[in-house]
Amino acid sequence: MVYRRPPSRFGIHSLSIKLSALISAICLIAGIFAAVLMLKSEQKQLMFEEHEQLNQYSARFIGQFGRFIDTKTNIAEQANEVVKRALFTHTNTNASFKSPQFIITDELTLRSMSDDGLSAAIIPKKNYSPAYERLFAKSEQLWQVISPTLIQDYFNFYLLTEDDFVRVAPPNWALDVPADYRAVNSLNFDRVNEQNNPTRQAVWTPVYYDPIWGKWIVSIVTPIYKQDQHVALTGADLELDKLLEYLPIDDPHQQMFVVDAQGQLLAHPRLDNATYQRYGRQGKPLRMSDFINPKLVELVSGALRLKLPTVTEQFSYEGENYLTTIRKVEGLDWYVGIYRKQSSALEALEALQIKFLGLFILYAILVALLLHQALYQLVLRRIYLLVNAVSSFGKGKMDTDFPPESKDEIGVLNGSFKDMSVELSNTITGLNQRIKEKEVAEQAANRLSKAVAYSGTGVLITNYQLQIEYVNPKMLEMTGYSEEHFIEAKLLSVIAREMAILNEDIEFDLRSRNYWRGDTMLQHIDGRAIWVSLSISPIRNEEGDVDSYVVSAQDISFVKESQRKMEQLAYFDTLTGLANRTFFRMQLRKSMALADRGHYAFALFYFDLDEFKRINDTLGHDVGDQLLVEVARRLKNRLRTEDTIARLGGDEFAVLLSGIESHERAKEVANTIQRTLNQPIQLGNNEVIVSASIGITMAPDDSSEEDQLLKYADLAMYEAKAKGKNTYHFYSKELNAAANERLYIENELRQGIRDSQFHLHYQPQVDSRDGRILGFEALVRWTHPVQGPISPFKFIPIAEATGLIVELGEWVMREACAFSARRAKAGLEANVSVNLSARQFQDANLIATMSKTLRESGIAPDKLHLELTESMLMGDVDTAISQLLEMKRLGVSISIDDFGTGYSSLSYLKRFPVDVLKVDRSFVQDIPEDSNDMEITAAIIAMAQKLNLNVVAEGVETKEQMEFLKANNCFIVQGYYFSRPLEEGAVNALPEHLEVEAP
Question: In terms of Cα–Cα distance, which of 402, 426, 433 is closest to 416?
Fold first, then answer.
């Protein structure tokens, strides 16, 4: 008998196996597909987060660097302001200085090393002048003060002028630079001119290689303008490699590159020091294409071309995909890029992918085994229902309804699959959430821990009671204390004793606002205090309540010290220690504001020292400086602490006296100042006595405007000088009216010279013995088109003060010579006398002008008589004699006018190459009533005759005066007795001999 397996059983088993295999395959494929979709979604989300994280990191990173650049810019601008005030504003031009010691060389450039070795200076020999001699000395003194501070912030600090003067610290560059170097042709000078830098602020130059220093550097340069003209700049260099140290990357997965706006690569992992040096020495730019791949070059070039502030993109290089963000640094015009591999971000996701795939395969195999065993016992309908449910679940429908449970195997399997689906859904959801939370928490904790530990800022963390629980290494380094000193100590105990007054304010703000920020001082272990910028911020728990505080402290000691030094240089006079003009104007502005509010008055004293220039010239500038220092000391000792005493420049001083409401009180102070200054001053081997002419204004009575009050004080001071010096004068409305008239005459004087409103009158000089006319004195007259005739006593002093007397004097000389030429041509007496002013006598072009005038007029030189006053010759006697000799070489005659009213030094008179003495009218007008004048006049005539000089008497108006002069052998006279000054037509009508009344 042959045994056969029952057909139905064989069919079910075969079908179970097939169905089992088929469903297992379907489950496996569906699981893998679902896993792939899920992981793809996770990958996109992770890449988006990486982009955001990279952008945030770049923004914070570049922001910190930008603030560092702003700090450097601010320091450079403050240093520029100090240099401008010290070297290019009005200072005491009489101050002494030490001549520079130049390095002996055959070059066309002068080089000088400072005595302390901190700086050096250069200038082309052709540009060297007394002004630059002073600039050598003054800049060396200034660099001794500011360069030690600035070299801590910069690689060097220098000054460049339009005449190629350079002062630099350290000195190496100035000693090694080629002799043909010209500052005005440099990149730095061109960078800050009016066209390229209309805002006149500090600017950064592109990075360049300096062959003298042998370094790649970037410069910050700030222009200096004088009278609205660009005359110089100050600059500071930073080494490129040192500057790049402020762009560290603390993540090993990230790399950085830096390019400038011209596309030059400044930093990259492939750029080492040898490469920098090789490119610099060869004069080659650091092209991006030499170091980075074309895709990244294309991204950077696009950002530069479109001037985009931020670019975030992906690129591929050597089989790796990278994320990159490029962000612009505004101050430097640089672009900083940070990039990292995508693989580093996807490593955790790839590990998770393998786990998911393995898990789904395991589940699929388990389902297949269970189905294979259950199909032996269940009917196909239930198997199909279960297969459909499993297939639906495998396609991602987590809410699939499985067949109902029962006590047999298929029913149990149905329940198992249902439970498994729920558990698997919860597991996947929970797993994704925990993985994400864990990664975020780990990254944040790691980043925060490193940032705090390696921060350049001191950090403390306290509990809610302000008890310290954590201190970072930087705080230990700043204070010198150990960690044990801080832990469990109270936060306010670390504040220095000097700032303990702030403790209550800090504690109040923390309790009321949970926040405090400000500048204070921390206690150092050695007992000193260090300035810090302190910030106390709250840390809140999940419920939003404050449970601790984080404290950050940035050391600003150097900034505070720099500010103190800058303020000292900016607001106080370096010689006397008094307030300078800038500080004085600030205090005056504050006083005016207080006065405007009422119930406050003050007095403004404006004065200078009488005859200071004479002391400076005779005893030397060093003695003049000692005198200014002693005057400042006496003023500080004699006046009140609340009064502001300032040296405005040279020998000019000003005093703000608070609480002075009456003229009587101001008079008392003025008398006190004069008595204080009148005490003898011992200067070396010399004892001098000085005085002051003081102008006084009362605020707010005289004016409520700052500039107007200063103007009134100045007017009052000049009135005090006019009254004979060593006195004081209060401002009055009459002074202002006189000043306005003076300003009007000054303006009209310029117009009058342009419009030829002037003409000459001529007063005859007569031989009193026979009435013969020997010559004429030319006297300028002004007929204004509106005001009519204006007295010379009004316009001549103004022309002298403004310098217009030079132009007017040249015209007078030309007209007088033309008058002489016309008389000579007519066969008449042609001698003509012309008065020279002090300004004309000191004019460098005087000799050339006289020579040209004589040549063009064609008169004989001896027909021109030049009249000078004694006071003009008694300043620098040797220079005056040299100038007189030059004039005598032209053949002209020289007279000393108003003799007897000035110095009348016989020892000097005999050295002057003069021909004539003119007796001043002040001695003649009271003859014969004043016997003293008669004796003086007789003595002057006798002295002139002993010196073989001719004598001319001015102001002769009576017969008695003429007879007295004739009796004393003075025969040449001029005055109303013979003739008033006449126009040329009237002069030509005079006879050759004027009538002389017989005695």
Answer: 402
Q: Is the peptide bond before 700 cis (omega within 30 degrees of 0)?
A: yes
Total Cβ atoms within 10 A of residue 992: 9
CA distance 191 to 223: 9
Residue 459 has φ and ψ, to the nearest 5°, of -130, 135
> Phi first, then psi: what are they for 133, rounded to 5°?
-65, -45
Each residue of 195-241: pLDDT tens digit?
A: 888 888 898 888 888 888 888 889 999 999 988 888 899 999 998 88
> How far does Cα 323 stand from its chain's mean position?
42
As a whole number of Å, the end-to-end CA separation of the chain is 199
Task: Provide the pLDDT confidence category of residue 791 given band limits of 50, 70 and 90.
Answer: confident
Between 2-16, 75-89, 483-497, 661-675, the lowest mean confidence (pLDDT) is in 2-16
Query: Distance between CA atoms of 608 and 138, rounded to whole angstroms?
Result: 24
| Helix (H/G/I), strand (E/B), else coil: 875 | coil
| Full DSSP string of 894-931 | EEEEEETSS---HHHHTTS---EEEE-HHHHTTTTT-H
* Coil/strand/helix, residue 868: strand
Half-sphere exposure of 731 (CA within 13 A, CB side): 25
Would the pTM count as exceeding 0.85? no
Six token digits for residue 566: 């800058």
Count Cβ atoms below 10 Å from residue 531 Cβ, excluding itself.
21
Q: Compute the distance between CA of residue 272 and CA of residue 318 in angstroms, rounded to an integer.
A: 21
Q: State the number of CA atoms in the 13 A half-sphere of 568 facing the CB.
A: 13
Distance between CA atoms of 918 and 897, rounded to whole angstroms?
5
pLDDT in tens, 955-978: 899 889 888 988 888 989 999 998
Query: Is the peptide bond prior to 928 cis by the omega test (within 30 degrees of 0)?
Result: yes
Distance, in Å, from the CA atom of 893 to the CA atom of 915, rounded to the nearest integer, reads 6
Nearest Cα residue to 488 out of 500, 502, 471: 471
